TrEMBL record:
<dbReference type="GO" id="GO:0003677">
    <property type="term" value="F:DNA binding"/>
</dbReference>
<dbReference type="InterPro" id="IPR005119">
    <property type="entry name" value="LysR_subst-bd"/>
</dbReference>
<protein>
    <submittedName>
        <fullName>LysR family transcriptional regulator</fullName>
    </submittedName>
</protein>
<dbReference type="InterPro" id="IPR036388">
    <property type="entry name" value="WH-like_DNA-bd_sf"/>
</dbReference>
<keyword id="KW-0805">Transcription regulation</keyword>
<keyword id="KW-0804">Transcription</keyword>
<dbReference type="InterPro" id="IPR000847">
    <property type="entry name" value="LysR_HTH_N"/>
</dbReference>
<dbReference type="GO" id="GO:2000142">
    <property type="term" value="P:regulation of DNA-templated transcription initiation"/>
</dbReference>
<dbReference type="Pfam" id="PF00126">
    <property type="entry name" value="HTH_1"/>
</dbReference>
<keyword id="KW-0010">Activator</keyword>
<comment type="similarity">
    <text>Belongs to the LysR transcriptional regulatory family.</text>
</comment>
<dbReference type="Pfam" id="PF03466">
    <property type="entry name" value="LysR_substrate"/>
</dbReference>
<dbReference type="GO" id="GO:0003700">
    <property type="term" value="F:DNA-binding transcription factor activity"/>
</dbReference>
<dbReference type="InterPro" id="IPR036390">
    <property type="entry name" value="WH_DNA-bd_sf"/>
</dbReference>
<feature type="domain" description="HTH lysR-type">
    <location>
        <begin position="2"/>
        <end position="59"/>
    </location>
</feature>
<keyword id="KW-0238">DNA-binding</keyword>
Length: 301
């Protein structure tokens, strides 16, 4: 049987990245801790760490073990909380994977309705690449995945993609940049510095094709997987950047940028991916119904 004390030691080392720091936190000597980790590796029959310089990095087996360890100790904490407060209403966890290309503001807008249910839920969000999240969904570690594309057909995972809605795109920029480009949209994007989504984003290819069809050749100065980071660079004056129309007003307020123009010819789409063909989880149903109200059908330019 697995020794959970060893698993706790392993998790601490994995989080700190070094035997010495973990030993100090655990009030053990480095030699003792190293020995305990070796015992766990022998028990599992795999190497959990590899040394890179002065740091310890997780192997593939180590990353898998850490995922399970996190879940085990999270469940343990929930058990302790439930037993210590049995009279309190039980809060059910709602575990959501968020593809790292989904804008944070969109994720909040889509998930917020789950927090208003009559039966309370505890929202647990995990951000990662869609492929990794889909794998965790398939083994029921997640209740739902938010993504900007359907589940890829080439993935050997059983799941269903439920459209949540779509919206057009606004192009924003710092006021100093906007003043140099003029108001003739979209011609003002020609030769303008442009920030675009990274290769994992479903928006990237339609955006580049739209520019090509229009005969617009901007100067691409940056590519970003994280939309919040792209907005921060846009705020600093690095270039023009696209955002979903449904979040444009909020992004303009938060980052103090202005709109150059907008188009409905490029659509950003959002999906809830689940293992259910028909949605039944109350929080997932709430997310889906609220999304239909928020994302109204729009006609292209």
């Amino acid at each position: 049987m697995l020794n959970y004390k060893h698993l706790h030691y392993f998790r601490t080392v994995a989080k700190t990245g070094a035997i010495n720091r973990a030993a100090e936190k655990l009030h053990l000597t480095p030699q003792t801790l190293s020995g305990q980790i070796s015992i766990l590796e022998e028990r599992l029959g795999v190497a959990l760490f590899r040394r890179t310089g002065r740091r310890l990095e997780l192997t593939d087996a180590g990353r898998t073990a850490l995922t399970y360890a996190d879940e085990i100790f999270d469940v343990g904490a929930e058990l302790e909380e439930a037993l210590q407060n049995r009279l309190a209403a039980r809060v059910h966890p709602f575990r959501v994977g968020i593809a790292d290309v989904v804008p944070k503001t969109i994720a909040y807008q889509l998930l917020a309705p789950a927090l208003t249910l009559a039966e309370p839920v505890k929202l647990v969000c995990k951000e990662d690449r869609l492929e990794q999240l889909a794998a965790e969904l398939s083994i029921h570690r997640l209740d739902m995945v938010l993504a900007d594309r359907p589940l890829p057909s080439n993935m050997d995972i059983k799941g269903y993609s439920h459209p949540l809605g779509e919206c057009g795109i606004a192009f924003l920029a710092a006021r100093a940049i906007a003043e140099t480009l003029g108001q003739d949209f979209p011609a003002n994007l020609h030769e303008a510095p442009l920030l675009i989504p990274g290769e994992d984003s479903a928006l990237r290819v339609p955006l580049l094709r739209w520019l090509e069809r229009r005969g617009i050749q901007p100067t691409i100065v940056g590519e970003f997987d994280d939309s919040a980071l792209m907005s921060a660079f846009g705020q600093a004056g690095a270039g023009v950047f696209p955002v979903p129309l449904t979040t444009a007003q909020e992004v303009m307020r938060q980052y103090e940028v202005v709109e150059l123009g907008q188009t409905l010819e490029i659509r950003e789409r959002f999906f809830a991916i689940s293992v259910e063909r028909r949605l039944s989880h109350p929080a997932v149903v709430a997310v889906s119904e609220a999304a239909r109200r928020r994302f109204q059908p729009q006609d292209a330019d």
